Amino acid sequence: MTALLRNLLAHPYAERIVLTLIMVNAVTLGLETSKTIMAEWGRILHIIDTALLSFFVAELAARLWVKRLSFFKDGWNVFDFVVVAVALAPATENLSVLRSLRILRALRLITAVPSLKRVVTALISALPGMGSIVLLLGLIFYVGAVMATKLFGDVEFGPEKDRFFGTLGASLISLFQVMTLDSWSSNIMRPVLAQHPYAWLFFVPFVLVTAFTALNLFIGVVVSALESEGQAAREAAMAKSDAEGPDGEPPPITTPVTNLDVLTELRALREQVAQLEQRLPPRNGLSGG
After folding, report:
1. How far apart are CA 230 and CA 115, in angstroms?
2. Residue 18: how many CB atoms within 10 A of its CB?
3. How distant, in Å, are the alpha carbons of 14, 101, 133 from that of 218?
4. For the segment 121-139, what is each residue's pLDDT rounded down to a tens digit?
5. Is the separation of the CB atoms in 180 and 254 below 8 Å?
6. What is the four-CA torsion angle of 171, 176, 182, 184, rounded to 10 degrees?
7. What is the pLDDT of residue 202?
8. Which residues have C-beta within 8 Å of that of residue 122, sequence separation ≥ 6?
């Protein structure tokens, strides 16, 4: 039974079938958001969704049966298990949020498509470097928010006379808007310039440091992680190709040659040459001795 399930899961068409059904399930879950479609096709969509969920449960159970406890050693397997488990939550009012998370089954495309899997793996490997950048950015934001609150806390914005820099929290939100370049010049900096003409000395360096420097550091870390993951994938493919040989067959097993092997072979060759000389007839009346 275990061998049969292992062969089925390892079959090339098995992965394609799972991938196709994941995409079909993503489409059906999207159609369920339309009240018009649900009014006419709701029952059929529900049957399709139930059938697909049953298939995913059976596929996951087969993988659990084959791999046993080692199944949970792979983070991607745990991800698939959680996604399917969430989809099995009962449709009650208290668990309606969990039922809405059924669309997470579409994320199984990540585990089914190797290229997507490599990208996500690279993003995860980039998290430590990104964490350092987040700490740096947080420090810059805190220093900037304290300065902005002290300098521009009295500035009122718009007809409602909001104070975007009246408190430390408001300053952090306003500076985040500045970093994203969302109408920061017309809605934030220019009203401040009306009362503080030299405010540009604060805003322009802040934008340069956050929007054009710190955020680009994120991109650099991610790109570096993607290059490392791609290089690792290429090296693994080359190692597999070398191990299989040119025709896809394992290369012949060779035994390392040592100096003792060479000397033994030479001694055997000398003995064979001596035996051949003894068997040769004498030439010019001279014996071989």
Report:
1. 10
2. 18
3. 37, 29, 7
4. 888 888 888 888 889 899 9
5. no
6. 40
7. 94
8. 222, 225, 226, 228, 229, 230
Residue predicted with more confidence, 85 or 178: 178
Domains plus CATH for the chain?
A: 2-112 (1.20.120.350), 127-225 (1.10.287.70)
**Residue closest to 23 by CA, chosen among 86, 117, 108, 119:** 108
Helix segments in the chain, DSSP class H: 2-10, 12-31, 35-67, 75-87, 96-100, 109-112, 114-125, 127-152, 168-179, 184, 190-195, 200-209, 215-244, 259-279
Beta-bridge partners for 162: 157
pTM of the model: 0.57
Look up residue 45 and give its two tokens.
Answer: 């969509």
Which of 155, 166, 159 has its CA nearest to residue 197? 155
Query: Rounded to whole angstroms, how far apart are CA atoms 113 and 97?
Result: 28
